[in-house]
Amino acid sequence: MRVAIAGAGGIGYSYAAFLAQGGHSPVLWSPSNSRAQDLAQGVPLTATGAIEGQFSVAVAQDPAALLAGADAVILALPAYGHRAVIDRILPHLATGQSVILSAHLSFAALYLSRGLAARGLRCPIIVWNTTASTGRQTGAAAVSVSLVRREVEMTVIPTEGMAAALALCTELFGVRFRPVDSLLAVDLGNLNPTVHCGLALFNLTRMERGETWVQQDHMTPAVCRFLEDLDLERRAVASALGVSARSIHQSYAVPGKVEIAPLAMMMTEVVRIRRPVNGPKSLDTRYVTEDVPFGLVPLVRLADMAGVAVPLHQAAILMFSSLYGRDLALENDLLPDIAPAFGSLDGLRRMAAQGWAAG
């Protein structure tokens, strides 16, 4: 299957290796045209870690070439790049092509749905609550894949296309997808903003000084208590909206290896069984620049609609804005254009299930 990948960073490279290993034909596109140039010249992609091997990967120079003949397109880039890339691929999408938003945040699917409705296109929009794999580029044509996830929550707009969407995701990435009821469940089930908030806030000086540090080693008991309290707020919002959301403890549990317990106790076992992952070495990290504007800010918007207090989320947004010297809430470029979706909970639920036109 020909699979277009919009984004040529660590996640995009890890997806290309994953798909090529499975016999598919991945095509990478760098929106900045600054990456994957060695791959474009025929250098094989070398993957190490959770995926091992060398793979031939095609590279497109523009969105038209990327989407030509593609069965599916995956957005494999941070949420702050979603709007710009959606705007660039929309003119070249064709009815029937599936669009996968990997690690969906901030209702980007509704922004895409709005654009599809304007063009009169019917494309399944598949959303995941996290990435299927994690990776870091170790060279111009190399990626270290630290993790292939056991489970990814997913849904599709419109929701009646779930069976086909699940079959497509499984064909591409194997049996690891768990369908959930709605887009709300996917966004509220994305734990990256919660975990990254604690890691970045309490290791910020390490990041600022460019130190090398292992993430799991710095999820100390105090940090874990903060993450548990932040998680309680997230789940309170989900409950008020009638959405089932796994706890942070459930997300880290591994049957037979890591049992559900206080998070600090669980992390001791996680450190023992998982490959170490280094934390960011700069303040210019998506742990803040993506997860605060596109993760924490939309959750506060949902909390306001549901009448749920989320003081830790609000405080975190203010603290990061102070630390970075700019109003991070204003950096979300998706919410303003889909503001009509938040006029009422009923309207938001309809759009989340059936797309922009349902509103």
TrEMBL record:
One of its GO terms (biological process) is pantothenate biosynthetic process. The keyword Thylakoid does not apply. Keywords: Pantothenate biosynthesis. The keyword Calcium does not apply. Residues 3-101 form the Ketopantoate reductase N-terminal domain. One of its GO terms (molecular function) is 2-dehydropantoate 2-reductase activity. Pathway: Cofactor biosynthesis; (R)-pantothenate biosynthesis; (R)-pantoate from 3-methyl-2-oxobutanoate: step 2/2. Residues 180-323 form the Opine dehydrogenase domain. It catalyses: (R)-pantoate + NADP(+) = 2-dehydropantoate + NADPH + H(+). It holds the Pfam family ApbA. This is 2-dehydropantoate 2-reductase. It comes from Gemmobacter megaterium. The lineage of its organism: Bacteria, Pseudomonadati, Pseudomonadota, Alphaproteobacteria, Rhodobacterales.
